[in-house]
Design a protein that fits this description.
Blueprint: H1 15-22, E1 26-31, E2 53-58, E3 61-70, E4 82-89, E5 92-100, E6 114-121, E7 127-133
Antiparallel strand pairs: 1-2, 3-4, 3-6, 4-5, 6-7
Length: about 140
């Protein structure tokens, strides 16, 4: 029997993020008052507390903020080692998304190196963020 990773439970605040990922894109709320990208999605801006948010499609480009390789079975459905990556988004570096590095791209990258976020489907119908290198930039 194959063990799959736990599935998210989308709610009113996060459903559009997961739907965009399933369609192959990245979408997050952006504050109309201060311009901050709200990540993770919440009903109000963490900077100015405004509830005036618009969902925007983002480029998926970002910068390597940090990464960690986990050598124990910490993520159900994934055999160790698993590399977890923090990516600051190009549109707002304060917004950090966590993704998996399933292709081993961050091992040779310096901090602040360009990365691309994409979504990779899993067998249960969700798509999860993964990173790829943006060396061509």
């Amino acid at each position: 029997m194959e063990n799959h990773r736990p599935q998210p439970s989308p709610n009113a605040d996060t459903r559009r993020f997961w739907d965009a990922g399933r369609a192959g894109g990245l979408s997050l709320p952006k504050c109309r008052e201060c311009g901050r990208i709200v990540c993770p999605p919440k009903p109000a801006c963490p900077s100015c507390r405004s509830g005036a948010l618009d969902w925007v499609t983002l480029s998926g480009r970002g910068r390597l903020k940090g990464w960690c390789r986990i050598h124990i079975a910490a993520l159900p459905g994934r055999e160790p080692p698993v590399t977890v990556v923090e990516v600051s988004l190009e549109e707002d570096p304060r917004a950090t998304l966590v993704a998996l590095d399933e292709d081993g791209v961050v091992e040779t990258l310096a901090p602040d190196a360009p990365l691309t976020l994409t979504f990779r489907p899993d067998p249960n119908g969700f798509s999860f963020p993964v990173v790829g290198s943006s060396e061509a930039e």
